[in-house]
Amino acid sequence: MAFKKKFTPRKKFCRFCADKALPLDYKRADILRDFVNERGKIIARRITGTCAHHQRKLTVEIKRSRQMALMIYTATHACDVKKKSVL
Ligand SMILES: [Zn+2]
C-alpha cells in the first residue's frame, strides 16, 4: 500500500536526552522553535515526548527567548510587527 508508510506512529523520545550535545539555551531559538506551535504556544510534553526534566528547562528557556525578542509571544503580536514594518 502506498499510503501505509505515511501513518506509521513514531516512537516519541526526549531530543535533549538522546543528544546530550544539543544545546538547551535561549540563544538557540532555532531549536526552541520546534517546541512551540505556529502561534508561539509551548507544545505539551505528552505531544513532543520531552522528559519532565528537560520540559521544565525548555519552558524557562523559551520564556527567556521571548523576553529577548528572539521568539514570539503570540501570532497576533507577530502580525502587528509585520504591519508596522510595512507601513
Ligand atoms: Zn530529557
Can you offer a commentary on this structure?
It is a single chain. The longest helix has 16 residues, at 52-67. This protein has helices at residues 15-18, 29-32, 45-48, 52-67, 75-86. It is globular and about 45 Å long. It contains 5 helices and no strands. The protein is mainly alpha-helical and 87 residues long. It has one domain (13-86): Irregular (30s Ribosomal Protein S18). Zinc ion binds at residues 14, 16-17, 51, 53-54.
Protein traits:
87 residues; mainly alpha; 30s Ribosomal Protein S18; 5 helices; globular; binds zinc ion
Helices and strands in order:
Blueprint: H1 15-18, H2 29-32, H3 45-48, H4 52-67, H5 75-86
Bound molecules: zinc ion (ZN).
By CATH, the topology is: 30s Ribosomal Protein S18
Ligands and ions found = zinc ion
Strand content: under 5%
- Number of DSSP strands? 0
Quick overview:
This protein is an all-alpha fold. The protein contains 5 helices and no strands.
